[in-house]
Amino acid sequence: MSERKRGLYVQLYNIHGLLKSKDLELGRDIDTGGQTKYVLEFAKSLSEWDSIEKIEIMTRYIADKSVSEIYSQKIEKVNDKVDIIRIRCGGTKYIRKEMLWDYLEEFVDKTIKYLKTQERLPDLIHSHYADAGYVCTQLTRFFGIPFIHTGHSLGRPKKDSLLNNNFSIEEIEKRYNISKRIKAEELTIFYADKIITSTNAEIKNQYGIYENFSEEKFSVIPPSISLEKFYAFNLKREWTPDEKVIRFSLQEELWRFFTNLNKPIILALCRPEKVKNIGGLIQAYGESKELQEKANLAIYAGIRKDIKEMPDLAREVLTDMLLLMDKYNLYGKMAIPKTNFENEIPELYRLAAESSGVFVNSAFTENFGITLIESAASGLPIVATDDGGPRDIVKNLNNGILVDVKEPKNISDAILKILDDNNLWKKYSQNGVSTVEKYYSWKAHTNMYLEFVNNIFEKRKIVPKTFIETGRKFLNYKKLIILDIDETITGNEKAIESLKNLLINKSANIGFGVATGRTIESAIKILKEIKFVMPDVIISSVGSEIYYKSGDEYEYSTSWAAHIQSSWKPRKIRELLDRLSFLELQPKENQREFKVSYNLIGKKDDIKKAVDLIRVNKIKTNLIISHDVYIDLLPFRASKGRAIRYLSYRWNIPLDSILVGGDSGNDEDMLTGELLGVVVGNHTKELDKLKGRRRIYFAENKNAAGIIEGIEYYKFMENKERLDNE
């Protein structure tokens, strides 16, 4: 690593939330598999390096009686350098990761608020899984932060595998939100500086089928394990009191299931997911009388109390396991324990190894297979799926047999081959123990990681083109000025020039934006025509769209779009209002994704009929009237004022530090409340009702001159020198 003025500040994103500093509930459900363990162990390992100053694991805040209270602790310390930071999104109840997609923009917003409270941006962000990839994509676009991604699994291969195993596309979409996931993965591949994979096969066979695939972005760094926890079953060493308790507890649990505990144990450890093919393993065991006579089968498929209360996916898998157990009459030979905690797992492998057993990973598709190297370190031979990561593991360690798991007999034949040959069993056991450190130790892993992080910093001396430059500015803004364009900024050339000079010379900690009924294209065009200051942010189409300045272009805010899209029914609105003779639909260029616009060609009183029609049909919408002629219907969460309040929230700028100016009815909701309002002298009668309201200043001067008057009234530009120095 090259010398840096201070150590690295790294954020690791692992969104789903079921992550804590110790005693991980591995297998509790589909969100608590190897990825969760990897992120925590990786953070701990990384923190041991002198070049690292601070690591934050960014995850979801959960306050739910069905899970541990620790997940509601906003900040949890792991060690002196590592903290778990919990960000609230989508309420407080636990939500499985496939259902979190609609709340990721909220996670982005609240992460930005958190970042603004810190002394600096992270030097590096690293996402784990597709949801975190989406979040980090948004963050790197705004702030230009170097961005690394680890997929752990991918949507396209998973979709193909499920289709090949008789899942319908409708079922896949419903259960996994696979289209959103694949779209997020495409964005991640495009924006990430580097993508870490576990194997070379993962790069070519999985990422290679994505449209944005670019081979130079990828580096292979296999996952690792703690060799202090996972050591050989025959290593001479004193058991700790905790290990003795765990061992006794595990043996006692297995005795509840097995008639004969003195047979080898066929061990499986995985989440209760269909893709893990647990049913295939049970079928392999159930259809082989020879295997049943020689060995017991123990499947640890997560943590459960009552199957009926579990999520649909897990409930289906566990129910199928019980039905297969009954079908093949495996009572006394097969165990399905209800719990397995992180601290029990190493001892579980050693128990199986002591029994001269075999570990089985029967998944249809396996990106890597962390359990396989844990087994290897414990001296337990493996039988694994001939797919993805297991190929590299067996090639490196030569500790077991790969099979095509779609045919259950392949699984049983491979297990019997190892059990029947004592010399082969010893060979696989010894190979795993003796070679695992060379390929899968944390020291080797983090050393490789930090080497290519340093390479990223070297390449990143030029700011990436994808970076929205305004993002970093907003982190420093203490105040905002947001103005309407037509007849507020425009209308007086001399005043326009004066306001322009005022904005050019403002403090660097004051941002400038416009809020207009115009489309983004029209807003940019008029501002360029009058040669005005191009704003940091444009709120366009009456508050239904937000755009951030990025070089000479403006980037659409997907976050605002996600915020306002709830209950928006533009087709239904058109069906109802197109019938009314006193309304005329505005030209196509005025219609937007989140705006339907009409002109009133009847009487002013006719507007009430339109409002009543919308209300009777229970349509949630925000109807805005301006100049007594223009009618805009927006999502109920959208308007100029709400868009400004959203900017205040997202960028942590107090409402009373935002000055807004306007002249007509569609400016009303941004002029009221805690914002500092300025109404120009040429305002329409629609705003007269606001006179006398707190924090609304009615200027005597017109147009831009009225804005300057309002800025002076509020003394908004005072203490410029202090602001610049903050």
Mean pLDDT: 91
State which percent range the strand residues make up: 15-25%
* Number of beta-strand segments: 26
By CATH reckoning, the class of the largest domain would read Alpha Beta
Largest sheet: 8 strands, mixed
Give unreliable regions as ranges: none
What's the CATH architecture of the largest domain?
3-Layer(aba) Sandwich
CATH topology of the largest domain: Rossmann fold
Helix tally equals: 27
- The secondary structure category is alpha/beta
What is the helix content? Answer: 40-55%
* Order of strands, widest sheet: 3-4-2-1-5-6-7-8
Can you characterise this structure?
This protein is an alpha/beta fold and about 725 residues long. It folds into 4 domains: about 210 residues, 3-Layer(aba) Sandwich (Rossmann fold), CATH 3.40.50.2000; about 200 residues, Glycogen Phosphorylase B (Rossmann fold, 3-Layer(aba) Sandwich); about 180 residues, Rossmann fold, CATH 3.40.50; about 70 residues, Hypothetical Protein Ta0175, Chain: A, domain 2 (Alpha-Beta Complex). Helices cover about 40% and strands about 15% of the residues. Strands 3-4-2-1-5-6-7-8 form an 8-stranded mixed beta sheet, with helices on both faces. An 8-stranded mixed beta sheet has the order 19-18-17-16-15-24-25-26, with helices on both faces. Strands 11-10-9-12-13-14 form a 6-stranded parallel beta sheet, with helices on both faces. Helix 13 links the parallel strand 12 and strand 13. The longest helix has 19 residues. The protein starts with 7 loop residues before the first strand and ends with a helix. The model has no long low-confidence stretch (mean pLDDT about 90).
